[in-house]
Amino acid sequence: MKRLVLCLTMVTLLLSACRRPTELTVEWQPVDNSVGSWKFFRSEFTLENRGERELGSRGWKLYFSFVRRILDEGEGDETGIQALAAQGIRLSRAGVAKSGDYYVLEPLPGFVPLRPGGKRKLSVLASDWAVLKSDAPAGFHIVFEGGPFGADLSLAVPATVRLDAADPKQTTRFEGDVLPVQTPALRYEENPSFQSLDLKARLLPTPRQVDVREGEVVLRGAVGILHAPGLGGEAAYLAASLGDVLSASITTREARGDAGSERIRLSIDSALDVDGDGDTDAEGYVLEVEAEGVSVVGSDAAGVFYGIQTLRQLVPVEAYAASVNPTSRPAALSLPRVRITDVPGFAYRGMSLDVARHFQTKETVKKLLDVLAHYKVNALHLRLADDEGWRIEVPGIPELTAYGARRGYDLQEAQMLQIGLGSGGDLAQGDGVAFKPESPTEANGGVAPRYQGFERATLNFVGAGHGYYTVKDYEELLAYAAERHIDVIPEIDMPGHARAAVKAMEYRFRKYQGTDPVRAAEYRLVDPADTSVHTSVQGYTDNFVNPCLESTYAFLAKVAQELKARHDAVPGARLLAIHAGGDELPSLAANVWWQGSPVCQQNPETRGLTDVQLFNRFFTRWGGLITATGAAATGWDDIIHHGLDLPGFIPMPWSNVWGWGREDDAYRYANQGYRVILSHATNLYMDLAYNKDPDEPGYYWANFVDEKKTFEYRPFDVYVNGTADRMGNPIDPSAWATKERLTEAGRKNILGMHGLLFGENVKTPQVMEYLAFPKILGVAERAWNPELPAPDQMPALWARFANSLGQSVLPRLGAYRPVDVRGELPDSVGVNYRIPLPGARRTGGKVHANVRFPGLVIEYSVDGGRSWAVYSEPVSAPGRVLLRARASDGRSSREVELN
């Protein structure tokens, strides 16, 4: 395999030094969502031949990824029929497997050659609808059979997308979609007004009690930190974080019975009762800033750490901005005299990060961990395996990463997974695609991507389909997380979403079947004679493991024990739970998953069982393998949806889409006695696009989700959030009358909540940050303070939160430098949070503008963007006006136009 990869890399490098052999380009446009009702839509692929040779009627194949299912020839209804043959083309699933989102377009004998300089529009029907540019097909590459490069190497084809936001046929999903496209006027009506903030409103998450006194305390010169035994890590973290914003000598010392003269003191009071209910409050703290110094007292080490985070937020925003250049750090910091008492409302305050679809490096994850810790998030659910990739080294099963952590042009999938989600090995060589862009700028059409919205680069191979964490990498992440009081919850999704593992173990089987049959079958996950037919939501027909094979459980036992070994090797890295997966099994009750498996019929323990029974048996065993490690079993609530009683299991209910019928699953499970982690897609799925603007990246199958959705989420009464369906149609509150409500006992079983970021569209670290921030800030606030006032008081609460983001939180985030206690991180400053587009309207001949987060600067241009002025009051501008919002770090939002 290494020899093949080396050869492919060398050939690709040689070809890249040559002139591009084809100048074909592709533009895609959704033309009409109104055909096919909600079932399908019409789009156009425009092929343009900018080269010197003809694209003929045979001898080439154009490959790409597309999240929508392309209709078969002749499929459709009276509004439209798929007619590809009449255009001289065939479109089908690509590769031997014909599984997933990978398609091939090839000419039929009737294809009229595309001559140099020519264009050809191809009309194609695909399932559902497309209203955002990120819906576009991606990763185009062409193969010329019998040409100079052969069929073993493909050539990248540049792609673009066109979508007209003013055309209802392109932005309305179907006739039931009444959700408006974002406009400046709509934003203007929704944006809150500027308001002055007190100290409490500037802190995130909001503390329980803030008592401000007169005066300030100044830190300068030699700053000593005295800490109780066991708080050395917290003291070192505080020293490093202060050192980032203060030019001073900062030292730490463990208290040994002496009073000491240090200005900052860290200690533990194991009986600390912050809320006065008579019980010790885990993770609670008291922070006092007085003339004699700073005191942080926690009920435990985590409480001390959270007190430190609040202390860091007392540092003036200006000090963070000045410290972007380390040589400009201020020599003194002025802190307000204050006493803050605080305790979290939920024990579990998390974020879920999918690194399987697109890999994120350990450096990227470390930065994320540090920012999450700043907002008192204490859990990272890490999705390490899915159909498109396996991302963690498992000693003893090297094939999982040698094969399963790689994607590329390999139609037989002999050496790696097929290209998926429009990406293989990013822009690097070695994945069988030559002439890829050499940089993100080239992939973006010559313009450096800013990732403040959709970027063309994400269609042109930007995105890491390769990559995994070595044992050392993962243990580094665990140590880094533990230092910040974050527990890592690894997920190995089974029995579906398992294609990377399945294909990797088939690769292992082929590798050893001729020399060591026992080893070949040791971890095999499928019955090769299985004739069962199914298709997952993502279009895969071969992405599940067989629950009747003992080798399946040998594999899972090995993986679980290796995860335990990783956590055991790192002090403080608790393995609280392993996420077992369990989601999105298509038509489980229809008996289509395993009934065609001879192994299932021959195994006396599984013979005659329905798919539901096999599924429940599988999770009884998989859950047992997890609990054998000492960890709890958690997973998607689908696991117990079919009647399985799994004591100790912690479900994550997610499928609460308004009107789909499962809105009360979370409360039913909690009332039954299960401990529940809320994962509701309608408000907590951060990979969903911010709003209905074609330039917003992300999915929108459950809802559009922004920071207001996460902030206004009601953990104990989610029905209050169900005011409109995903198409914008109002929902009468009586619709929830028959849904199950939380009992008092059930309420105590809500462990917490998290924001979830699935990775299909998260192709770069910048996209990750754009989609997560500021949405995760709403999650952090609500997880710390789950109780909310009556709905009629929420507009005022939201306005205060929006002002806090604009005036305090985001300016600090723009200058944020991850706390690097041991010097292990590359230097980086700031987070690529989303900057909201301004709202605007014309009234009385003047342009009026505002912004979602008051405190951000609004700029306008009357000369097409050649020059910009700061907006401070309504301006007379009769012609075309461009507007944008600008953050304190100099970045700006996308431009909006007012005619």
From TrEMBL:
Major enzyme class: hydrolase
Coiled coil, from the record: none
Keywords assigned: Glycosidase, Hydrolase
GO cellular component assignments: membrane
InterPro entries assigned: Beta_hexosaminidase_sua/sub, CBM2/CBM3_carb-bd_dom_sf, CBM2_carb-bd_dom_sf, CHB/HEX_N_dom, CHB_C_dom, GH, Glyco_hydro_20_cat, Hex-like_dom2
GO biological process terms, semicolon-separated: carbohydrate metabolic process; glycosaminoglycan metabolic process
Active site: 584
Residue ranges of domain Chitobiase/beta-hexosaminidases N-terminal in the record: 22-186
MF (Gene Ontology): beta-N-acetylhexosaminidase activity; polysaccharide binding
Domain of life according to the entry: Bacteria
Catalytic activity: Hydrolysis of terminal non-reducing N-acetyl-D-hexosamine residues in N-acetyl-beta-D-hexosaminides
Alphabetized SMART domains for the sequence: CHB_HEX
EC number: 3.2.1.52
Family of this protein: Belongs to the glycosyl hydrolase 20 family.
This protein's name: beta-N-acetylhexosaminidase
Organism the protein comes from: Myxococcus llanfairpwllgwyngyllgogerychwyrndrobwllllantysiliogogogochensis
Lineage summary: Bacteria, Pseudomonadati, Myxococcota, Myxococcia, Myxococcales
